[in-house]
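Weekly structure sync, notes
Attendees: PL, DS, HV (note-taker this week)

Item 1: CUE domain-containing protein
DS walked through the input record. Source organism listed as Linum trigynum. Sequence as pasted into the shared doc:
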Amino acid sequence: MASAAVCSARICGTKRLHLFDDDEYNCDFPSPYPSPVTKRRRFVPPGLERLQARFPNMEVAVLELALEECGGNIDAAIHRLCRLSLEEAPAAKPNPAAKISSDPPTQWVELLVEEMAKATSMDDAKSRAGKVLEALEKAVAQAAGKESKRRAEVMSRENSLLKRAVAILYERQKDKKEKEAESEALKKLVAEYQEKLKTLEANNFALSVHLSQALRGGSISGHCRPDVF
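Item 1 (cont.): predicted structure, written out as tokens:
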């Protein structure tokens, strides 16, 4: 019996020694595979960054828990986190006008839905909706002001071009009138010269007739006898 007990003790001691040796071996040479805890720390669930961008004031652990409870469904996690934010009811209510200035209409719709989801009561919802509508009105007015300014600049340029065109047309009309006046003066001068030419031609014809008559008279008088006179 004693020898059996000693043998069993030796076997147990040997097993314990082997167990300690294995632990010591594992401590000296750690496994290249990370532990489950290390995996959980390094693993980033898909959609977490989207939740962080949507809920920047919430802790990452809360976002991971909501995503895990919803089975990785991002829409369900967003709905749950919205309800959680409504339950918390923060005292500070940011002005929605600072979020969107000139974004497309879909951004305004998303902002309105987000503000309505954050509302804790009907009065809070009315207040948030009023702020969103006020911000939208300011953005529309600002955009309309920019458009009006752009149109005014375009109209100013067109007006300048129109003034230049009118000035050029006026100068052309003035030159045309001056040329027409010069043409009329030249026509009158030509008519006067034509009348003078006709007069000169008539006088010349008369002189030629008188000259021919005088020449004929001289030739006749040259054949007369001198004693007649």
